[in-house]
């Protein structure tokens, strides 16, 4: 449904358009903290549901675009990569979810570009094992829209770097890593080849790490341009380095709200797990 002019003016970080199945429309700030409800307003059933579950993901609006923003915090989460089981790629979040304990997972998302068999086309590390080497080749497509980059980490230290910086500075193998492209934001500046709001609009997802070391995962709930997604990271999240993960195949699994996206086959998966309570 269409949003009224008054609703857009409020920018209450809630989408006027219908949200994906299972994803509550929650009034929340982009840092993931719950925002106080307006005393005079009656909570919707979706907002009531959101208040009863602990979700790392919130539905928000940026420049009229509905997004889902998922926040991973080192004190509460750890990050892994997953590709498949018994040598066979999962190819869907449905298959990954069937093989996983949803109680231990905050959320999962597709995490980088892949070939026809679902294998990564760039650097990929799972459980400290490098399954694919860094790709510095030139070529066509989004992956080769340089600078591209790597999202990687060990323990609670997570980083996004452009590929050249990764090659020059990272000497020890991380516990996890995935390469994709293009970079959306590089050292606080939007990728030089990304226009303000280009004609290419798809469901897209990305990741960026802020100065506090938190990883911000974003997936659009409607087609979005590179430029708008990059501005969200730069201007709203104030993330200095953000990496595009993919488009058109972008999917999210959020067990807390029972959102499990289906679609075209995927490859690498990033898994944000809950840390066990002390």
UniProtKB/TrEMBL annotation:
<dbReference type="Pfam" id="PF09992">
    <property type="entry name" value="NAGPA"/>
</dbReference>
<dbReference type="GO" id="GO:0016798">
    <property type="term" value="F:hydrolase activity, acting on glycosyl bonds"/>
</dbReference>
<dbReference type="InterPro" id="IPR018711">
    <property type="entry name" value="NAGPA"/>
</dbReference>
<keyword id="KW-0732">Signal</keyword>
<keyword id="KW-0378">Hydrolase</keyword>
<feature type="domain" description="Phosphodiester glycosidase">
    <location>
        <begin position="105"/>
        <end position="250"/>
    </location>
</feature>
<keyword id="KW-0326">Glycosidase</keyword>
<protein>
    <submittedName>
        <fullName>Phosphodiester glycosidase family protein</fullName>
    </submittedName>
</protein>
<feature type="signal peptide">
    <location>
        <begin position="1"/>
        <end position="18"/>
    </location>
</feature>
């Amino acid at each position: 449904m269409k949003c009224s002019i008054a609703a857009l003016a409020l920018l209450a970080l809630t989408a006027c358009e219908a949200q994906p199945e299972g994803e509550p429309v929650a009034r929340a700030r982009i840092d993931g903290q719950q925002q106080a409800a307006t005393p005079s307003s009656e909570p919707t059933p979706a907002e009531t549901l959101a208040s009863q579950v602990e979700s790392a993901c919130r539905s928000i609006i940026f420049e009229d675009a509905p997004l889902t923003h998922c926040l991973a915090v080192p004190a509460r989460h750890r990050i892994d990569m997953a590709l498949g089981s018994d040598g066979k790629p999962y190819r869907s979040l449905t298959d990954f979810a069937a093989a996983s304990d949803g109680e231990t997972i905050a959320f999962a998302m597709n995490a980088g570009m892949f070939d026809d068999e679902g294998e990564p086309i760039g650097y990929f590390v799972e459980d400290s094992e490098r399954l694919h080497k860094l790709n510095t080749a030139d070529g066509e497509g989004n992956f080769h829209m340089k600078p591209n980059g790597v999202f990687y980490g060990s323990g609670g230290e997570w980083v996004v770097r452009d590929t050249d910086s990764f090659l020059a500075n990272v000497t020890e193998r991380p516990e996890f890593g995935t390469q994709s492209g293009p970079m959306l934001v590089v050292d606080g500046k939007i990728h030089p080849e990304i226009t303000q709001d280009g004609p290419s609009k798809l469901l897209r997802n990305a990741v960026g790490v802020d100065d506090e070391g938190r990883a911000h995962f974003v997936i659009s709930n409607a087609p979005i341009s590179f430029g708008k997604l990059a501005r969200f990271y730069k201007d709203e999240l104030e993330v200095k380095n953000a990496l595009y993960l993919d488009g058109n195949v972008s999917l999210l699994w959020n067990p807390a709200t029972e959102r499990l996206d289906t679609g075209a086959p995927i490859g690498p998966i990033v898994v944000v797990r809950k840390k066990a309570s002390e």
